[in-house]
Amino acid sequence: MAPSLSEEEIDDLVYLARTGEGAEFTELLQELATRESATAVNILTAAREEQSKATCLHMAAANGHAKTVTLILSHLPVPTKKSTAAVAPPEDTESEKTIVEAEPAYIDAQNSFGNTALHWACLGGHLDIVKLLLSRGASPAVANDKDQIPLDLAAFNNHMHIVDYFLAQSEDIEGDNAQEGGLAKETEEMDVAEDKTAGVGG
User: Repeats (ANK): which ranges (predicted)?
Assistant: First the structure.
C-alpha cells in the first residue's frame, strides 16, 4: 500500500530538497517512513508535487544541491547490471530483477513536462549532479514532451562543459550506439540547425 502523505508533508519534503536542507529533509523522511511503516524509497516516490509532478530529486538536482542529491540516492538500491541477474541462482532471479528496475523508476521519474532530474541538472549546468545521476543509472536517453533529451537542454543553454562531458562519456553511456556516431552525431545535427531555440516548460 502506498504511503498516505498529506499535501503539506509533500510540500515540506519538496521544499527541503529544493533548499538543500539535508538534516531537516532526512529527519522528516525518516519520521514519515516510520509512521507509514514504509521505506524511504516509498516515501520519496509518493512525495511529488501535485501539479508539476516534480520529485524531491528533481528539486535538489535543479538547484545544484549535490549533498541532497547524494542523500536521496543513498536511499535507492544500488543499480545492478542485468547480466548479473542472468547468472544468479533461480531463487534470486526475481530479487535481482527488482533491484535492476526499482531505481530507474524513481531516478528517471518525469514531471508533467516529461523532464527528469537529469534534464533539470543539465538545464542548470550542474555537472557534479549530472555525474552523480549518471553514476546511479539515470538514463541520458529519456525525452521530454518536446522530444528533448538531457543533452539537448545543456546544449540549448550553452552549458558546453556538460555537453563535453556527455561526449567524453558517450561510449560508456550509449554502448554500441557510439559506434554509429551516437551523441556526437546528434550534437553535430544541433549545430547545423539554424538559430534553433527551445524553451523548457518545466
Answer: 113-145
Contact 122, 90 (CB under 8 A): no
Cα separation, 154 vs 123, whole angstroms: 5
Sign of the C-alpha dihedral, residues 170, 174, 178, 184? negative
Residue 94 burial by Cβ neighbours in a 10 Å radius (0-12, 13-18, 19+): exposed
- How far, in Å, CA of 38 to CA of 1, rounded? 9
| Alpha helices by DSSP H, the chain | 7-19, 22-36, 40-46, 56-62, 66-74, 82-87, 90-107, 117-124, 127-135, 150-156, 160-168, 170-174, 182-192
This prediction has a pTM of 0.74
All domains of the chain in start order, with CATH:
7-192 (1.25.40.20)
